[in-house]
């Protein structure tokens, strides 16, 4: 696929500038094993981590997270990117230059988000730079490096963004997948997403090899997400076609049914003008959002909030930017689609398109009788594992759901656990 050069070039330039200016403010010593005060925060519904858009907290003119939260209703951000040190070694840094162990800058961003009732996931990898899977000697040491990030920030979610050039290195990918499995086992409840390149056929040869590696190690994350951009895509129809084909790849690789594959599938887009000159308007995001929700996909995200504002002029003279979208829009317009995916209603302070759907009639739950779970409520949000009572039966949610009457079908969100 064409390479997302922008993410490398802009991040590297920004990181170099910060280093040249002296980022001593980021290097406040901290005791070994200490946990930052940023670690205080309550876990959100997994749907918010699934909807979290990417935010670069140190590069690409980061917007104030609190302002974005107030304007859109978003509660979670995907902070990017964790890399190995540019000078070598198996320890986590932000962008290859700012050690996680001594960080205060990103910690302050996280504290701001959590103070407003939100939370973060952290993304490792991305395009370019040296990844920890390449620098560390095995899966265990790779996992230990990522565990430092989880402990430092008290994370409940993490994203493995496995792209070029790392995903062409089978040994590095084995380290990354092995590390993800270890983290999943050692951090119960950790939300784990795996993001990789998208092609018009779903994903390419290296993406398929990554899935095979996951299968061979017996690792199943919350989702495998593809990035359908920078690969000859033209708007939403090409993206949804790729998501359909990726679903078929997941089915054939893991032996899942179509609905099981969608429940483990995610979308990671690029808002506005892509690196290769493709254009994705708000209307395209609406179409993909409708596809994702109607197929009960697990994740909907995009890169990045830093770009979710209008350039001046709006088309940015036909150039792609890391700090604006190069398409006409209102500020944070793309972020509101993530809010809708999470199941919330964005503030109506701007003419942002809203998801359209046909309301499901609200059913009146039957008396609970001998059931111990609360009666199903059409207005409530349920996540995987939640139990309810409906029509004298106990039901368990397979994934996030709201206003979907409990019915025992393969494609539906509920499992009938029997009469009370």
From TrEMBL:
Task: Tell me the segments the record calls region Disordered.
Answer: 307-326, 342-371
Q: Does the keyword Hydrolase apply?
A: yes
InterPro entries per record: CBM5/12 (IPR003610), CBM_sf_5/12 (IPR036573), GH (IPR017853), GH18_Chitinase (IPR052750)
Residues annotated as domain Chitin-binding type-3: 373-417
UniProt key word S-adenosyl-L-methionine: no
Q: Which domain of life is it from?
A: Bacteria
Q: What span is annotated as the signal peptide, if there is one?
A: 1-33
* Pfam families (UniProt xref): CBM_5_12
CDD domains the UniProt entry points to: ChiC_BD
**Compositional bias annotation for Polar residues:** 313-326
Keyword annotations of the record: Hydrolase, Signal
Name recorded for this polypeptide: Carbohydrate-binding protein
Taxonomy of origin reads: Bacteria, Bacillati, Actinomycetota, Actinomycetes, Kitasatosporales
């Amino acid at each position: 696929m064409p390479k997302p050069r922008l993410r490398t070039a802009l991040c590297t330039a920004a990181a170099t500038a910060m280093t040249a200016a002296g980022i001593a403010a980021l290097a406040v010593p901290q005791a070994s094993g200490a946990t930052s005060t940023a670690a205080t925060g309550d876990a959100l519904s997994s749907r918010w981590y699934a909807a979290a858009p990417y935010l670069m907290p140190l590069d690409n003119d980061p917007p104030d997270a609190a302002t974005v939260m107030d304007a859109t209703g978003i509660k979670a951000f995907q902070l990017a990117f964790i890399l190995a040190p540019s000078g070598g070694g198996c320890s986590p840094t932000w962008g290859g230059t700012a050690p996680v162990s001594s960080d205060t800058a990103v910690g302050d961003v996280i504290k701001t988000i959590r103070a407003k009732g939100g939370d973060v996931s952290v993304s490792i990898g991305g395009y370019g730079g040296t990844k920890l899977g390449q620098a560390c000697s095995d899966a265990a040491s790779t996992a230990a490096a990522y565990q430092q990030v989880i402990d430092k920030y008290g994370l409940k979610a993490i994203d493995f963004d496995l792209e070029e050039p790392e995903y062409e290195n089978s040994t590095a990918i084995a380290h990354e997948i092995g590390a993800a499995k270890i983290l999943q086992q050692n951090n119960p409840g950790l939300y784990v997403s795996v993001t990789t390149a998208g092609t018009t056929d779903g994903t390419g040869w290296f993406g398929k090899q990554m899935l095979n590696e996951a299968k061979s190690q017996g690792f199943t994350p919350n989702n495998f997400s593809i990035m359908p951009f920078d690969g000859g895509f033209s708007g939403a129809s090409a993206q949804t076609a790729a998501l359909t084909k990726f679903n078929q790849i997941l089915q054939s690789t893991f032996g899942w049914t179509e609905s099981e594959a969608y429940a483990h599938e995610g979308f990671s887009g690029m808002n506005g003008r892509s690196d290769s000159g493709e254009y994705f308007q708000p209307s395209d995001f609406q179409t993909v959002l409708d596809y994702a929700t109607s197929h009960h996909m697990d994740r909907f995200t995009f890169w990045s909030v830093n770009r979710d504002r209008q350039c001046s002029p709006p088309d940015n003279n036909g150039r792609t930017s890391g700090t604006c979208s190069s398409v006409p829009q209102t500020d944070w317009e793309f972020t509101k689609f993530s809010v809708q995916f999470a199941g919330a209603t964005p503030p109506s302070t701007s003419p942002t398109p809203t998801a359209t759907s046909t309301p499901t009639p609200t059913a009146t739950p039957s008396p609970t009788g001998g059931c111990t779970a609360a009666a199903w409520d059409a207005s409530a949000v349920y996540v995987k594992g939640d139990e309810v009572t409906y029509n004298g039966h106990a039901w368990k949610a397979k994934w996030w759901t709201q206003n979907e009457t409990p019915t025992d079908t393969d494609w539906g969100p509920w499992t009938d656990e029997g009469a009370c």
